[in-house]
Ureidoglycolate hydrolase isoform C (Glycine soja), 385 residues
Amino acid sequence: MELAGLSVREDAVGNIFGRWLAWWLKGEGGRKRWDGLEPELAAVATGSHIDAIPYSGKYDGVVGVLGAIEAIRVLKRSGFKPRRPLEVISFTSEEPTRFGIGCLGSRLLAGSEDLANSLKTSTDIQNISFLDAAGSAGYSKNEDDLSSVFLKKGTYSAFVELHIEQGPILEDEGISIGIVTAIAAPASLTVEFEGNGGHAGAALMPNRNDAGLAASELALAVERHVLDSGSIDTVGTVGILELHPGAINSIPSKSHLEIDTRDIDEERRNKVVEKIHQSAIKITKTRGVKLSDFRVINQDPPAISDEAVIKAVETATKELNLTSKLMISRAYHDSLFMARLSPMGMIFIPCYKGYSHKPEEFATIEDMSNGVKVLALTLAKLSSQ
Ligand code: HGY
Ligand code: MN
Ligand code: MN
Ligand code: MN
């Protein structure tokens, strides 16, 4: 960001902001005179994340951070003079991997008191607290600083994120740009079952209450409730399933599941969450296990893109003679929370076979440069208004 001539700041949890205040000319008496810029106006922001889940790709998020910096450089090279400042944001911890909740940085920017409170006691899988992790990364260890991250509504006049589609539609239909109209509503749950465990050879089947089988039955129940929702837009995944003690000849005495379920329709998604809870309770009765934990980590509403931002992206794609398509985002993004602060929009580019969250994730130079050009032109339009 500094190499691109942006003034950089980092907040208490590692969100990184690079602001282009455009340039200024020496006015009479050597005073600063902004050349066309009104620096006190709300900035137009763009950005994404650079963190990734294990064994995944290198385009998810990164395209929207490096692409945003490149879009600003393109505007500078073209001699464009914005009326509003432009700001690039690299959000911290968009993936839930380390502290169990997605969009940690953008959630805080959007003012989540619940998250600020829970981070005071959160620990990661190696039992390192969030504050210690933040401190060792050079950020604040002081829990009172968490709410200093909150941004005021109106901080930005618009927020636009460039991202790979993480689905196959654009590539299948040979379309260059996706214009996101809405971001699906994500929810994540943590569930733990407990049984007596015991010797895999000596304990006869009627005497068992196998926590591993309880978890397996709940995983299949997640699939059933999702498929029964009546819509292809409902999805559910058990991405983490751990058994304790994890020995082949010991009946699992504990099981830990983490469930991700989403839908573009919030009500329908909430019904699935409720049914999963009912199934977990039913399994305790039929299998004689204890439900030692059932927590909804997050149950977020969908976000709707702003009409004016959609229009700006659409016009930019037309002026660049690129094909485009309106579409929903089934993946969540920092835009899901930035939409709580300002009008939001997203620009998708195709990715190889729609692959994402796996090493085969790939986007071509041509598609990435199309995305950067559309982003640059969109930022130019939004920052001239
Ligand atoms: O899971 C998601 O939708 C995002 O890629 N973190
Ligand atoms: Mn991701
Ligand atoms: Mn992402
Ligand atoms: Mn033995």
